[in-house]
Structures are given as C-alpha cells and as structure tokens.
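Database export, one record per block. Field names are fixed; values are copied verbatim from the stored entry.
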Amino acid sequence: MDALGTTAIGTQTVNISGAVYNYATASAAAPDPVNFADRHVGDVLSQALSIENAGTVDGFTEKLDASIGGATGAASASGSFIGLGAGVTNASSLVVGLGSAHDGAQSGTATITLTSDGALIDTLGTTALAAQTVTVEGTFYNYATASAAAPNPVEFRYCPRRHHCQPDLERHQSGDRGRLLGEARRQHRRCDRWRGGQWVIHRSGCLYAGHD
C-alpha cells in the first residue's frame, strides 16, 4: 500500500477455555469363554457377564451403555444397561445361555455392543466403542433310559423231572400251582440251567421263571 513498512500497535490476549472429557472405557467381559462344562440334555443354562466402566473416576469420564445379542450356534443372549459410571461394574444385566436340546459338544457366540454416553456428563452425545464377542460352550449328556423290566409278571413253576421240564412246560403252565409245589417239596429235586429260560435252584425242587 505504501512504503512505510510495519509498525507495532500493541498486543491482545485471547482466553481459551474448555473441558476435555474421557470416553467410557469398557473392561473385557467376564467370564469369557463361558464354559458350562458337562451338563445333562434338557438343563436350563444361563450366566450373567461382568463388565466395568474402567475410565478415570474424576467427573470427566463419560458413562457406558451396553447391550448383548447377535447369538450364533447354540448360544443365546439378552440384556442391556445404560449410564454405567466410571469405576462401576455391572454383573447382572448381560446374560448368555446355551441350548441343551441335543447331546454332545455345543457352542456359540454372542456380541456385546458398547457405547460411550455423555448424557449428564457433557454435551457430546454418544460414541460407538469397539464391540466384544463372548464364546459360550458346553457338553451335554443323556440320562440313562431304562427299558421295561422283563419278564413281567414273573411266574415260578415246578418241573418234576429235569428232562421233562421243557416239553412239559405247557402242561405245567395250566396246572394247579399248589399241587406242583407240593410235589417239588416231596421230591427235593434240583435241576440245572436250561438254555431256553432260567432255572431257579431251590432245595425243594426246580422252579422255572417265565411268562404265562
């Protein structure tokens, strides 16, 4: 503009102020993996997860929000919480489970969605944090299953002569039981095991266990 150069005209002071806030810091969810170990088919299984807002406790750390879902495989997941303050742990709201309809090794995963929440702390709103994945596993076993006991009913019959027991079975099935037992007591006979059924050794005679 001219040839006069520069001339100092004084200084000004500008005040700069503001508040700096920490994001919420989520600890690793625990337990992880969730191992239900050996269980029976049909058992109802659930496990609450523990998670902490591990941010600095100084009034300048945002709160932590979390929810769990996105279950895969045999896993199940439910629950959420909001406004977890710095230094505070939530150990009840996030829950995982494992389906027990089938025997053998079962497993799956669930995803925890995490958010840093400035509500009641600052005016910065919410910020998504890195999600966490939890593994759920276990092995299921069937109860023993008893068949119906056989034979049922069991009837004991006297066979008067060892070599007549098998061919005479039908006759003795329809005979008078008292008479046959009396004859057994008189003869005091013993007999061996027969391949087609079961012989019961008795000092008063040979009794056959079988069906009517």
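Remark 1: The mean pLDDT is 82.
Remark 2: The two ends are 130 Å apart (CA to CA).
End of record.
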